[in-house]
C-alpha cells in the first residue's frame, strides 16, 4: 500500500538531527529572505530572483503571476521539495533546508493535481495520513472523523477517490493536508478545473481555516479568487516581486479605477463638462467618446449623482460602471503577452 503524500516520514530521520525550537506562538509564520533558484541548463533560467516575503499567523496570502513567473518554484522550496540556490525559508522559525523533517511537521500541501491514494477510501486517506505523522490508532481515527464532519464528507467516507467529483476531491485533499494540524497550508492552484459551485465551496473551506489560526499561502490564476480570499497578496513575474499589499491597496496604488461609460443622445458641447470633471479631485480623467462620455475615478461615492445630472442635459441613454479589479493591476504590471 502506498501513502499518497510523498514527503518523507518525519520520524524516520536520525534523532541526532535536531531542530531549533518552534516559534508557532510568534506572529511571523513564514519568512522568506533573498530566495533565489537558478536552473543551470543549456539556457540558464532564473526561476526565483531574490524574493523577500513574510506571512503572519492566520493570514491568507495570495501569490499571483503569469505562467512561469516562479510561483510553483517558491512553494516547492518552502515545502522542501526543491533546494534553493541561495536564500532562506523559515516555517514557524525552522529552516526548511537545514531541518526539513522538522519543518514538514508544520506544513500542509495541496498540489495542483489530485494526489489522493486511489486504493484507499476517503476515510482511509485521512486516517493513514495521520498515522504517517505519528498519530496513534485512536487519535488518527478521531481526527479523521472530525475532518469528515468539518468538510461535510461523512457520507462519502467509504467512497474511493475515483468516484469523487473534482470539488469533492479537492475538499478531501485540503482535509488531508491539515489532518496533522500544520501551522501553514500551501495551496497551489487550488481551484483549477473546478466548476463555479465547487470553487465557491473550496473558498468557504479555505476561509474556515482562518478560524483555526492556520496560515495559508495560495497561488491562483483567478483574480476574483485572490481578491475574495487574500488578506494580502504579491504579484510576481520573472521570479521577482512586482507588487505587495492588500487587494484594495494594490488596486488603489496601481490605478485600478472605477470607469463610467455614459452613452448620450448627443455629445455636442461636452468640452466644458469634461473640463469641469477633470478639475474634480475624485476624478483622474475624463474624455469625450464617439458615443458620449468616459470618466475614470477613484470611486463612485458622490460622483455618480453628479454624472447622471450632467448627462441628463445631453440625453442619457445608458450608463455602464466598471469597478476596480485586480485583473487591471495584474495586466498593468505583467503585460498582455501570452506565456507558455
How would you describe this protein?
- By secondary structure, the chain is of the alpha/beta class.
- Helices cover 31% and strands 26% of the residues.
- It contains 11 helices and 14 strands.
- The strands form 3 sheets. A 6-stranded mixed β-sheet has the order 6-7-8-3-9-10, sandwiched between helices. A 4-stranded antiparallel β-sheet has the order 2-1-4-5.
- Helix 3 crosses helix 4, helix 3 runs parallel beside helix 5 and helix 5 runs parallel beside helix 6.
- The longest helix has 16 residues.
- It is elongated, with a radius of gyration of 25 Å.
- The N terminus is likely disordered.
Unreliably modeled segments: 1-26
- Silhouette: elongated
Instruction: Please give the share of residues in helix.
Output: 25-40%
**Total DSSP E strands:** 14
List the helices and strands and how they pair.
Blueprint: E1 28-39, E2 45-56, E3 60-64, H1 71-78, E4 86-91, E5 94-95, H2 100-104, E6 107-110, H3 122-132, H4 137-150, H5 166-177, E7 184-188, H6 196-211, E8 215-219, H7 223-229, E9 232-237, E10 240-245, H8 247-253, E11 258-264, H9 271-278, E12 283-289, E13 292-297, H10 304-312, E14 316-322, H11 326-334
Parallel strand pairs: 3-8, 3-9, 6-7, 7-8
Antiparallel strand pairs: 1-2, 1-4, 4-5, 9-10, 11-13, 11-14, 12-13
Helix pairs in contact: 3-4, 3-5, 5-6
